[in-house]
Amino acid sequence: MTTLIDGKAVAKKVNQATQVEVAKLVERGIQPGIVVIIVGADPASQIYVRNKNRKAEKLGMHSIVRELPETTTQAELLSIIAEYNVDPSIHGILVQSPLPKQINEPLITLAIDPRKDVDGFHPTNIGKLLTNFPGHYPVANTPRGIMTMLAAYDIDPAGKTAVVIGRSTIVGKPMAALLTNANATVTIAHSRTKDLKAVARTADILVVATGIAHLITGADLKPGATVIDVGMDRDANGKLVGDVDFDSAQGIAGAITPVPGGVGPMTIATLMQTTVELAKWSDLGE
Ligand SMILES: Nc1nc(=O)c2c([nH]1)NC[C@@H]1CN(c3ccc(C(=O)N[C@@H](CCC(=O)O)C(=O)O)cc3)C=[N+]21
């Protein structure tokens, strides 16, 4: 039997806890605030940004969407970030990816105050994650949300073999770091990995974040494996599908996340959780 890991249900619980935390902070005169900066009019990005804004408002947070034209220069974007870095009503700054080609994304990441880096992409925060640094710091929300889902289903990575397919700054690398910190034995596989499917078959926990629809099928899984599908792909009919062929994984995987309704809702819920934490830590001077 394969357990369905219901990301939507876990996200709902996280959101309920966040709403309580927001109310507590508001009571103390702090309304957690997030700004999402979007450059250009990529339709998929616009949908995600709208969803984040709606969720933040629903939870009682202060939420700004800053829409900038496709032609925005590096200098203009840097000056807008500088503005929010010193804005006391904003605790989290998120610059939606992808950015137009005239913008140097790593330099934008570097310009965000690490204390307001709600994505956890700033090298300071990545460094803290890699060193399993004591104290508080933001961690990328998709991998962090995955760890929350695993915990919700009592899946402890300690001593397990984990394989992460994908080596992005947004998912693969922080995912591997979190699993390592949780005492899994971790392999990062990617587009240049030889015999990727044989590597996948070694995994007790398999996280797939490639952007290739149905790359992994049931035949590529160790029986009983936990399968986390980070994919947000479109099939030939334009339907939203994952990097894992859900149907063939049924009966082989021990547990699996669906797309939609798995990692996506957890990412948004964790983003809200992180924003509230940043507001709380800023008040503590941490
Ligand atoms: N700086 C930055 N940070 C991000 O976190 C970031 C980003 N840029 N750029 C784009 C990606 C993508 N992303 C998603 C979040 C939630 C869903 C989500 O809620 N998905 C729903 C379904 C959505 C649908 O039906 O289209 C689900 O899986 O159930 C999807 C995608 C965050 N991203």
Automatic annotation (TrEMBL):
InterPro entries: Aminoacid_DH-like_N_sf, NAD(P)-bd_dom_sf, THF_DH/CycHdrlase, THF_DH/CycHdrlase_cat_dom, THF_DH/CycHdrlase_CS, THF_DH/CycHdrlase_NAD-bd_dom. The keyword Metal-binding does not apply. NADP(+) binds at residues 166-168. It catalyses: (6R)-5,10-methylene-5,6,7,8-tetrahydrofolate + NADP(+) = (6R)-5,10-methenyltetrahydrofolate + NADPH; (6R)-5,10-methenyltetrahydrofolate + H2O = (6R)-10-formyltetrahydrofolate + H(+). Pfam families: THF_DHG_CYH, THF_DHG_CYH_C. Pathway: One-carbon metabolism; tetrahydrofolate interconversion. Keywords: Amino-acid biosynthesis, Histidine biosynthesis, Hydrolase, Methionine biosynthesis, Multifunctional enzyme, NADP, One-carbon metabolism, Oxidoreductase, Purine biosynthesis. Its EC number is 1.5.1.5, 3.5.4.9. Signal peptide: none annotated. Residues 5-119 form the Tetrahydrofolate dehydrogenase/cyclohydrolase catalytic domain. Residues 141-281 form the Tetrahydrofolate dehydrogenase/cyclohydrolase NAD(P)-binding domain. Catalyzes the oxidation of 5,10-methylenetetrahydrofolate to 5,10-methenyltetrahydrofolate and then the hydrolysis of 5,10-methenyltetrahydrofolate to 10-formyltetrahydrofolate. PANTHER family: C-1-TETRAHYDROFOLATE SYNTHASE, CYTOPLASMIC (PTHR48099:SF5), C-1-TETRAHYDROFOLATE SYNTHASE, CYTOPLASMIC-RELATED (PTHR48099). Belongs to the tetrahydrofolate dehydrogenase/cyclohydrolase family. Homodimer. This is Bifunctional protein FolD. It comes from Lactiplantibacillus daoliensis. The lineage of its organism: Bacteria, Bacillati, Bacillota, Bacilli, Lactobacillales. The gene is folD.
